[in-house]
Amino acid sequence: MPVENLYSQRAAFFKKEVDSELGPSSHPYQPKRRLQQFPWPWCLSTITFAWTTVLLLLRPVTEISRCADARSLPVVVGTKFFVTCGWESTANSAPWQEDSSHRVEVKFTGALTWNASGTLINKHAPGEKLWVGDPSPEIDALWERFEKCTTWSIMVEGDEADHVRDQTLLKDGYWVTGLDVFHQLHCLDSLQRALYPDYYPHKASPRTWRLHTDHCVDYLRQAIMCHGDTTPVNQKWYPQAHRFGPDSATMHVCKPFDGIVEWSQLRTPEGRKGTRGIEVAKDLSVVIPDDSDVIKKEHEH
To answer: What is the pTM of this model?
Structure first.
């Protein structure tokens, strides 16, 4: 197709989309004017680039030194430098005690797009592990990785317990708590299993199953609205489908999730096996007897 026809087609489609939402525009399209080229902008940009490069080269040395005690590794993503301090096996602080500086850039996958024949598909990176699709042992293994880190399965003491002390149950000298992210993942896993009832038959009564499903949908709604991800999702022209659509393969600034999982797994009952914490409850009614399997039963539930 000639380039001129493609531009005309895209412009006509875009005008139709805008008119349907806002009504016809009274302002004709005006092409962007070419900027006059002067030497000063080029000089300023060169100086800015050189200074930024110096800062980027100096920053890793400072950040690595700051995180040496945590045995954490620096992560370079594109031209940005991130350090995943904290949430490691040797860290002394809990995930809820970390500040916003511990972030990494992650490009989201699984975007809806159209293939060469114009068929709508989910696009994944080559070799990427798939969390969705037809049920398989591989998909189950990904989700089951988090089952040991449920709401009842993290045991903390000392500084890590400052946010939960005397507000939850005590077991073997540890306060029993959990991270809500694993509760949310449990809910999401339940919903994706509901898509395949023959493969994942639910054991609960119809009423209980419906209540749990409604709970998960509404809980995930609140979690999404709470975090309020404001990452821009731009519109992209898909010539094979002759239409515009969202480009959801976007870069997001995220917490280092693998570190959160590692931190949590080391504090599960299995990870704490053979040890005893230092915590003592003010209210003895919250103490779980040593021979109690209440955590195990709750986990199985």
So the answer is: 0.65
